[in-house]
Amino acid sequence: MAMLSICTIPPTAGHENTIIFLHGRGDTARNFMHSFQEWRDSESRSLPELFPSVRWVFPQSELRSPVRFPGARMSQWFDTWDIANLHEKEELQIEGLKESVASIRLLVDREVASLGGQREKVVLAGLSQGGATAVHTVLNVAKGLGGLMVFSGRMPFSGRTLAKMRSILDLAEVPEDDSAVRTTPVLVQHCTDDPLSRVQNGREVRDSLSSFGAQVEWREYPTGGHWFHSPHGMQDAAAWLRARVFNEN
């Protein structure tokens, strides 16, 4: 499995943590990285400015041919027949999701190694389809991570047990127990006016992960669309990182 190409925002202080952030369908790592830096709190500070010891990593998904649009090529982590209904022809999601999760696991392992093997120092995050891919990555890692953040997300293959979820992708080196899920703290944010990924999708992510034993913090905002809420969503994300990942009081 080839390593994904990445864009990075390097730490301006010593490298103490890594946050891997997955872009949405149709986007690119570079464009997403630049747009992400425009997400500001009430004092006009970005997350990289608030956390100078974090290395921010933005991997680029593969270009894939959507089955529904023959001849087209799209940057996507996995194929989807209908973004409004992931259950329709959901088998189309399997191949790309399996490949993407395997690649993200390699990237996670590389970042863990760069931090001396400390898995609790690595956080996985994603927006929209990137959030869905991040969720399935955490469901298929051998050991827990420092955290998982999902924004405007979805839950492919929802309604199944954790074991069944794992069996669909059928990846190697996946534990039989739920300890990795239980030990990875989760933040899920969603805007209720999101026109592309309805807020019910975010609630489904929350409820599914909670049913698997994850400790999930849920934040719902009235506005923001298919993006991050500003400034309150950013401030909530920063507070969550401080409390659950960086262990700051």
UniProtKB/TrEMBL annotation:
<dbReference type="Pfam" id="PF02230">
    <property type="entry name" value="Abhydrolase_2"/>
</dbReference>
<dbReference type="InterPro" id="IPR003140">
    <property type="entry name" value="PLipase/COase/thioEstase"/>
</dbReference>
<protein>
    <recommendedName>
        <fullName>Phospholipase/carboxylesterase/thioesterase domain-containing protein</fullName>
    </recommendedName>
</protein>
<feature type="domain" description="Phospholipase/carboxylesterase/thioesterase">
    <location>
        <begin position="9"/>
        <end position="242"/>
    </location>
</feature>
<dbReference type="InterPro" id="IPR050565">
    <property type="entry name" value="LYPA1-2/EST-like"/>
</dbReference>
<dbReference type="InterPro" id="IPR029058">
    <property type="entry name" value="AB_hydrolase_fold"/>
</dbReference>
<comment type="similarity">
    <text>Belongs to the AB hydrolase superfamily. AB hydrolase 2 family.</text>
</comment>
